[in-house]
Each structure stands twice: as C-alpha cells, then as structure tokens.
Specification:
Mean pLDDT: 94
Bound molecules: S-adenosylmethionine, iron/sulfur cluster
CATH superfamily of the largest domain: Aldolase class I
Shape: globular
Structural class: alpha/beta
Strand order of the largest sheet: 1-2-3-4-5-6-7-8
Strand content: 5-15%
Number of strands: 9
Helix content: 40-55%
Radius of gyration: 21 Å
CATH architecture of the largest domain: Alpha-Beta Barrel
CATH topology of the largest domain: TIM Barrel
Order of helices and strands: HHHHEHEHEHEHHHEHEHEHEHEHHHHH
Low-confidence stretches: none
Largest sheet: 8 strands, parallel, barrel
Length: about 475
C-alpha cells in the first residue's frame, strides 16, 4: 500500500557521501577545527562530524571527551532530567528481527493494559515520584491515534496523593498527519521515532519489506509529518548495533540538519540505544558497538548538535551510564520496568517473555537520585518548557541565548525540592537539601536567588506544588 508522505519529503540520507565520510583518515587539524566550532555552540556539518568520528589516537579522543563535557556544562549545567518508560501494549504487526514483540514470535506474552491496569501503573509511578513518562506502543491496528490520545488524557487525569504526571511523551509507530494532530490535541510532549538504521539495505534486512515498518521512506518521513501535524517537539534515534556505528551517527546528524532546514527547528532529543539481548532474538555480532566507540559517538553527537537533548536509557548498565552521562547526556530513565504492568510487580529481575529486551539498570529511582546527587548532578523532573509553550522554534530561541540555565536550573531545584518533600529516602533528602543550597549559592543574580528561595520555602513550608518558571 502506498502511504502518503509529507510535502517536503525527499530521501535526504546521502548514503554515498556518508559511506565515504566513514572512511576518512584521522586529521588533527580537522578535529581541532570541528571542536572549536562546536565550542562556539554552532551545529556541525556532516564533514565536521565525520572528522570527529575519525579520531583514533587516545589524545584526540580525550580532546573530544573534554570538549563534550565542557559544552554540556555550558549549555545544560549539571542537571539531569529523569523520566520513566511505560509500555502500554506489545501487540505488533511487524517483524523487526531484533525485537521480542515481533509478530511471528508466538512465545511472547502479549498484553494491552486495561484502563484499571493503567491507573495502577500510573499510581505506582507517582508513588515513586515520577512526573515525566514516555508511553511505548507496538504497532497494531488497536493502537490508533485516538487510542494513543485517549491513553495520554487518562494518564494526565490520574492523581494519587501529591502525585501527578505532567509530561507524557510517546514512542510509537509513525502516523499520518491527521494522526499527529489527534495525539497533539491530547497534550503530548515529544513524539519519538527511531529510524533504527539509516542504511537502507541493512534496514531491509531487519525489517522485511512486506511489513508496515519495512517501508524505509515512510518511517524516515515520520517526523516530518509530525511537524506538519503540529508536533514540533520530536525525538530521533538509531538502534546501534545493526550497522556501522559511524554511518548511523552521521545518519542521525543528517536527519537533524534536514529537519532544521525544512522546518526551521531541529529535533528536541536524540536517542542512541544499543541493541540488547531479547527473548527469541539471535544477535549478529558483526556490528555490536564496543563501549569505547559508544562513548565516542555520544561525545560526537553532543558536539555536533549542541542544543538537542540527549537520552541515555536503562538498556545500559549503571557503570556505563555513570561514564557516558558526562559526555553530554541530558535525560535518563530511572526506576525502569519494561514488562507490561511491571511497576506493580513485586518480584525482582525481568521476565523476558513479557518484555521487549533485557535492560542493564534496574535500580530504583531513589537510588539513582542519590547517586546523581552524590556525584554533583541535579536531578530534575521539570516539565515547564512545553507547558509554557517553549517548544520547537520557541525552545531554540530560549536555548540559544543561554536562558536555559536561568530557567532550567531553578526549575530543576523546584522539582527536586518536591521530590525531597514527598518521596525521598532520608539519605537522598539530606544529599538533596545540601545540593540545593550549594546550587543557590552559585546564583550570581541576588534577586533571582531570593525569588527561588521563596519558592522553595513555599514547597517545604506552605505545601505548594508545581511551582515553575
Ligand atoms: N513499535 C514502535 C516502533 O518500532 O517504532 C515503538 C518502538 S519500540 C516499542 C522502541 C524501540 O526499542 C525501537 O524503536 C527499537 O529501537 C528499540 N528496540 C527494539 N528491540 C530492541 C533490542 N533488542 N535492544 C534494544 N532496543 C531495542
Ligand atoms: Fe514491533 Fe516496534 Fe518491536 Fe518492531 S520494534 S517488532 S515495530 S514493537
């Protein structure tokens, strides 16, 4: 079936050029030039990104890592935004070879959350202190835009004690323009679609052409249609391990540059999941991305797309997350369960027949919070930008002059304070209170510091909630 593409569609991935750029030799001059451009907070071209990817010598890689750390600090400060994924349904009509939800895998336990189960999951997430979710769906005729929109509305309506979910993002199949309008009207945050691999031939190997997802162009165009349907807050991603990691890093950067040009605004986030073992999946080791290369690609993505949020998920182990966090990651999930209805399950560990893949980090949210606080980060549950209309082009306008720090750091402190009052363990509470004081002491603007101190006091002593700038 021929499906309708966006008005701007062209296959904007130049495979020949990207293939050549993957092979270029390490060149210290080009590496240094690319680093200095990104330190000025300018997005990098494909050629400049490729120069950074070509780095082999330890000294050059260290320069790239240091620059990524520095740039992250300058733009995002030390805050890390926290969220949780919630799987709504794992019925699927596709045949992605790496995924335990693929249609033909009969041993996978299938489920779509009932309304009652949805309430229980949201209440459990709220009881942990979560404010931001990403809802995840297989691709199935039941999971229509209306169904997704209805689920989003329901999620926003569930309030347990002081809990509330204030931002709901989506990871689901690409929609048509009308579909995006429908989900946008329900108040979604980001619509995420991962291209998986930008290499067309490999894409066809993993996604049989007769399936819905087998249509490479319809998927590549998915986020362009999102813009045209009014969703200006979109997330790109590639599943690393299907093909050459350099190729897919350049694919992501090509996609970002295309959206910036065509829609005046780049993606809100980039995701770079590495493939994980999964029920019923035999992995081909050829393109598995080594830890060293993973760090390298994360740092390069940070430098090439300075104003785009970067998401590191619980697919990775705590050790890798700790290391990679500093190279430019701005969001992580925590307290993650990916089994359908997993947030109310008492047993530890995963039950892979009910899950999409195995994850590397199952620590509870409070433990991750404590670790972040103890290592100099400010965990944030902020949802302010999109609720104040600072999305898309607007968001870029705020980001570019450096307003992010003036808004994001205060909002991070306010949401952290809520968490400390309502959900934290004594240890996390102590570490959090100290971190808030240390952050306040850094405010150069005295009037701003006093204002935020008053707001924090409102949360602690006057029972105020959801204060944000
Ligand atoms: N069904 C929708 C789709 O495919 O676009 C929603 C996304 S799926 C539920 C979320 C993402 O998980 C996929 O886009 C893919 O990148 C990733 N994924 C699937 N199998 C994986 C595996 N074995 N290891 C790591 N990530 C995987
Ligand atoms: Fe279905 Fe998505 Fe899994 Fe593919 S990755 S089989 S589309 S759930």
């Amino acid at each position: 079936m021929k499906r309708e593409l966006s008005k701007n569609y062209k296959p904007f991935i130049d495979e020949e050029l990207i293939g050549e750029l993957c092979e270029i030799r390490e060149d210290s001059g080009a590496i240094k030039a690319a680093i200095s451009k990104s330190m000025e907070k300018h997005p990098l071209s494909l050629e400049e990104t490729a120069a950074l990817l070509s780095a082999k010598k330890t000294e050059f890689k260290e320069e790239i890592f240091n620059a990524a750390r520095e740039l992250k600090k300058n733009i995002y400060g030390n805050r890390i935004v926290l969220f949780a994924p919630l799987y709504i349904g794992n019925y699927c009509i596709n045949e992605c070879k790496y995924c335990a939800f693929r249609r033909s895998l009969r041993t996978t336990v299938r489920k779509t959350l009932s309304e009652n189960e949805l309430v229980q999951q949201i209440e459990a997430l709220e009881d942990n202190g979560h404010k931001r979710l990403i809802l995840v769906f297989g691709e199935h005729p039941d999971y229509t835009p209306e169904f997704i929109a209805g689920t989003v509305r329901k999620v926003y309506s569930i309030k347990k004690n002081r809990g509330s979910i204030r931002r709901v993002n989506i990871n689901a199949a690409p929609l048509d323009i009308e579909g995006y309008k429908t989900v946008k009207a329900a108040g979604i945050g980001t619509y995420q679609i991962f291209q998986e691999t930008y290499h067309r031939k490999t894409y066809a190997e993993y996604h049989p052409p007769h399936t819905h997802k087998g249509d490479y162009d319809f998927r590549l165009d998915g986020l362009s249609r999102a813009y045209e349907g009014g969703c200006d807050d979109v997330g790109l991603g590639a599943l690393f391990g299907l093909y050459d990691w350099k190729f897919d890093t350049l694919g992501l950067v090509s996609h970002a540059r295309f959206l910036e040009k065509a829609y005046g605004c780049g993606p809100h986030t980039l995701s770079f999941p590495r493939i994980r073992p999964a029920h019923g999946v035999q992995l081909k080791p050829e393109y598995i991305v080594k830890d060293e290369d993973f760090k390298h690609l994360v740092a390069v993505l940070r430098l090439s797309t300075p104003y785009t949020g970067m998401i590191l998920t619980a697919r990775e182990t705590p050790e890798i997350r700790r290391e990679v966090l500093e190279f430019g990651v701005s969001q992580i999930d925590a307290g993650t369960r990916i089994e359908l209805a997993g947030y109310t399950r008492k047993e530890k560990g995963q039950e892979l027949k009910k899950e999409q893949f195995s994850i590397g980090d199952m620590r509870p949210l409070d433990e991750v919070m404590l670790e972040l606080l103890s290592t100099g980060y400010i965990p944030s549950f902020c949802t302010s930008c999109y609720r104040k209309g600072r999305t898309g082009q607007q968001f870029m306008e705020f980001a570019i002059p450096g307003f992010i720090q003036n808004l994001c750091t205060p909002n991070a402190l306010l949401t952290l304070q809520e968490y400390l009052c309502d959900y934290a363990s004594p240890k996390t509470k102590e570490a959090g209170e100290k971190a808030i004081q240390a952050e306040l002491a850094k405010f150069a603007d005295v009037a701003q510091r006093e204002k935020i101190t008053r707001m924090l006091d409102g949360i602690k002593n006057q029972d105020k909630r959801d204060l944000h700038l």
